Amino acid sequence: MKFIAIIPARYASTRFPGKPLAMLNGKTVIERVYQQVSKVIENVYVATDDKRIFDAVEGFGGKAVMTRIDHKSGTDRIEEAVEKIGGTWDVVINVQGDEPFIQPSQIETLCRQFEQAETQIATLGKPFTEMAAIENPNSPKIVVDNRGFALYFSRSVIPYVRGEERENWLTAYPFLKHIGLYAYRTEVLKAITQLPQSSLEKAESLEQLRWLQNGYRIRVGLTNVETVGIDTPEDLKKAEEFLEKL
Question: Is the omega angle on the peptide bond into residue 100 within 30 degrees of 0, that is, cis?
Fold first, then answer.
């Protein structure tokens, strides 16, 4: 099975402009992401709409492809990149450009989901360990069926544990945190980028609900590895502290 990994990277982030080029202990954030993914996947590209990012990637020996500036999501940017790169790929992996600590084991787990022919899209989930994190709307939750396919994603606490005090919910049910790493069969990626926004997606501001609402199935691999994403300059400081502890 042939895999290709695409890392979408924009310069014009609202909360942290220039984030991919921010320095993290001597290397840019995007270089650290690229190096982590390259430990597992041979064919890795950064898809960007900014010449500064393109040049930086080529400068550290990586591969990059320029894409349009008007994409509404990273998924759309990845689809354009795959078309421009060409070749024949069975599965396309989407790694966020602000995840410098993504681990090889997580990518390997994601890839293994496609050993099942019925897998169309795959992502990862991690068990929650703190109730405060479960209640954070910026940390989406997943509920899965008995075969490991996602039933729903939500920013709300799901499911509601009836008959238990809220402080006991964590021990009463195995709440699952969504890790925003995706992979798609190539033909599925092409199809889902043609879909209009769905009502659930608009309500929760979660793109994956568009796919579920249109009947696509998302298999959820499990990981116990925590990552540190970078959304703000404050997150960069936390990432530096995290790196020092490794």
Answer: no
What is the pTM assigned to this prediction? 0.93
Query: Please, what is the Cα angle at 143 between 137 and 144, to 5 degrees?
Result: 155
Residue with tokens 């393109």: 54
Beta strands in the chain (DSSP E): 3-9, 23-24, 27-28, 44-48, 64-66, 91-94, 121-127, 141-144, 150-154, 176-185, 218-222
CB-hemisphere CA count at 13 Å for 68? 11
Nearest Cα to Cα of residue 47 among 28, 69, 29: 69
Distance CA 225, CA 214 (A): 30
Question: Which is it for strands 44-48 and 3-9: parallel, antiparallel or unpaired?
Answer: parallel
- What's the mean pLDDT when you consider all of the chain? 94
Q: How far apart are CA 221 and CA 93, in angstroms?
A: 14
Residues in the chain: 246
Dihedral through CA 217, CA 67, CA 29, CA 211, nearest 10? -10
Phi and psi for 62 in degrees, rounded to 5?
Answer: -90, 175
pLDDT tens per residue across span 135-162: 999 899 999 999 999 999 999 999 999 9
The closest alpha carbon to 124, from 97, 102, 91, 157, belongs to 102
Tell me the one-letter amino acid at 16. Answer: F
Q: What residues form DSSP beta bridges with 176? A: 127, 142
CA distance to 16, 82, 217, per residue, from 240 (Å): 16, 32, 37
CA distances 224 to 34, 38, 54, 106, 129, Å, are 22, 21, 33, 9, 10
